[in-house]
UniProtKB/TrEMBL annotation:
Organism of origin: Dictyobacter kobayashii
UniProt subcellular location: Membrane
Residues of the full protein shown: 449 to 730 of 1010
Annotated ranges, domain Histidine kinase: 41-269
Stated family: In the N-terminal section; belongs to the phytochrome family.
Entry protein name: Circadian input-output histidine kinase CikA
Length: 282
């Protein structure tokens, strides 16, 4: 009788613990939901006045021929515009991250042509490359045609990586290339993947910094990065979006030589779960 009394007590304690955990869990979920709702409302409320600051600064700059500004006024308007644009990209990045974290970023998959995808990313960043006198090109392995994924998200990932490559390269080139990879999966077909790499001949990242660069707001050289611009959120977004698409990001880099950022994506989105599980197991 003594024993079963003991047992009943410990069962009761266990039940109580479980109930407390359930309460805690739903409180956490609620807090998370409120947090991401708050972030998305805030971002929206901040974007509206910012759009007007940016718009009116641009109007002043454009009307300069008609009503000339003093050198000082010109510099000041330019500063307002630059900072407002920086703030806007910060808000957009924070909003994106919050959305992903809250699991509110949906995947809208379709079949897309890999060469066309790379071309569109390169065309969009061509003007920066020209301005910085860098070669910018694509290379797609023979036999690669399409990939089933979310085009907007892959574009966002690649635009982030290519912009970084162009930003942190003083001379040389930036190349975006796609090759096929296959992972054995125990069945006889294997999971087909595409590895898309952005290779630059830039300043590189030392190995002790490499593990940190995907952290939110991390910038290798704070003082330097400020002149480079950027929010320190780009690579966090790259990593989160790539995971969302069932892929992974890899980096190879050597200080002073250059960096290669590679995203590996499943060719068929249906393989997404498999790859994700495999990664968790290793
Ligand atoms: P940022 O807005 O500063 O570019 P990211 O999250 O995109 O933020 O990158 C974080 C940091 O990683 C950058 O500030 C930079 O120090 C480093 N980094 C990213 N890409 C490269 C690259 N291609 N070459 C050298 N350093 C890089």
């Amino acid at each position: 009788a003594e024993y079963s009394h003991q047992q009943e007590l410990s069962n009761q304690a266990l039940r109580q613990q479980r109930d407390e955990l359930t309460v805690l869990n739903s409180a956490l979920e609620e807090a998370n939901r409120v947090r991401s709702q708050f972030l998305s409302t805030m971002s929206h409320e901040l974007r509206t006045p910012l759009a007007s600051i940016i718009g009116f600064s641009q109007i002043i700059m454009r009307s300069e021929q008609k009503s000339p500004l003093s050198g000082r006024q010109h510099d000041n308007v330019e500063r307002i515009l630059k900072n407002a644009q920086h703030l806007l990209s910060l808000i957009n990045d924070v909003l994106d991250l919050a959305k992903i974290e809250a699991g509110r970023m949906d995947i809208k998959a379709s079949e897309i042509d890999v060469q066309e995808l790379l071309n569109s990313v390169v065309e969009e960043t061509r003007s920066i490359a020209l301005e910085r006198k860098l070669r910018l090109s694509t290379s797609v392995q023979e036999g690669i045609t399409t990939i089933e994924t979310d085009p907007r998200k892959v574009r966002q990932i690649l635009l982030n990586l290519v912009s970084n490559a162009l930003k942190f390269t003083e001379k040389g080139s930036v190349t975006v290339s796609a090759v096929r990879q296959s992972v054995p999966n125990g069945r006889d077909d294997g999971v087909e993947q595409i590895a898309i790499s952005v290779v630059d001949t830039g300043i590189g990242i030392s190995s002790d910094k490499q593990e940190h660069i995907f952290e939110a707001f991390y910038q290798v050289d704070n003082s330097n990065s400020r002149s480079y611009g950027g929010t320190g959120l780009g690579l966090s977004i790259v990593r989160e979006l790539t995971l969302l698409l069932g892929g992974k990001v890899e980096i190879q880099s050597e200080e002073g030589k250059g960096s290669t950022f590679t995203i590996v994506l499943p060719i068929h989105l249906r393989d997404q779960r498999f790859i994700h599980e495999m990664r968790l197991n290793t």
